[in-house]
Give the backbone structure.
Amino acid sequence: MQARTITETDQVREYRRRRREEGPVFRDGEDTLAVLDPQVAQRVEALNYADLTMFDDVADVLRGRQSAPFDWHRLRQAWLGQMRHLNDADGLRAIAGRMDAILAAEAGREQDLLWLGERVAVEPLIPAIIDGLGPIDRRWVVSEVFSKVAWFLSDIEDGRVSSWHKPKMISLQVLAGLAVRRELKGRLSGRRPRRTDLADPVVDLIPSLGLGRAVDAVTSLLTAVTGSPGAAAACLLFELERNPGWCARMTAELGDIPLDAFCSAPTRLAPITGRFVKEVLRIWSTPPVVVRDVRTDLECGDVRLKKGQRYVLSAYLIHHGEQDWSDPEVFDPDRWLAEARRNGSCPRGSYVPFGWAPKSCIGANLGMAQLMLLAHLVCTRYALRVPDPARGSMAVASLVRPKDFHGAIVRRDAAAQGAGPA
């Protein structure tokens, strides 16, 4: 295993220091509370989002009237029901096929592997959110999603976006919203077919939800995939390159499992790979800092917050806390072995890569499965070639992701023959 260089923002470093010196819950200014204890964070999130009525439809706001109240939990339950189809064998095969097509098209091309991780994770998820778009509408949606990806990745890297990127991003957001609206209206009227994507259960809720809020709900899912999935995929590629021993173990495990069969039960069929993926999600949890607005007065033990104040959560810092983990800075997938877990190497309740209920990621199982699929593809059909591995480092900023991680993905048969890029 090669050593890693890690660059953290001043905020993350300061929170890390204060958690170590002052404890996991502390004030950060008059109106902000850092909640870096996993159990307290769970209770605060549950209280803050116990009543989650969705905002009024924009059209109603413009007309000066209130929308019918709608509980966000109803929408979440509808999405969770649809997730069963996306997570089954057929759903994962569809995603794996789209991922494989991207890797095949990129094979042999030298590039920023962070961006390859973003593409191979994010683009295959768009049809899982909203499928059936025409070519032009799909182009607007894909362009809007990746304009946000580029914006997120520009926080500590000058030159990644131009000065006109933000107005372009806003324009694309409008066009993508119109594309989503057309698709939802078409399904509602029966002019377009129903599908097994996450937009489909929203259609049934439009009579009470309203078309404007339905569009907002779907576009919020598109925004959600612009951050964590691609960053996690890039971190997986980074750790595969940094840990050749683990890559060899996973290659041996996965080589005997055809991809088609693997999609039926990834974590059950490949426990070694599952441990590796879980450790990637632990050590490189993203985003590193989440700020919540307090929706209602909260009282939870010693925690007291008023409506309008804020609190800060950080799965990243919890996963790196010496109070909770043994050797938290060490990348060790074997900490997830049953015996190690019984010995306290993975404290109960302190592993939260997908956040806390009721705001935890609805795509947690799909996210885990997709990383397993990426590991299978890279360990069986493709291989990483990184000419200067020492140059790469990890950046902990708005997202946690590799920096200066350049190379190519090559087909395994070409790599075995020592061939250069195609």
Remarks:
- The two ends are 29 Å apart (CA to CA).
- The chain has a mean pLDDT of 92.
- The chain has one domain: 6-414.
- Residues 392 and 405 are 5 Å apart (CA to CA).
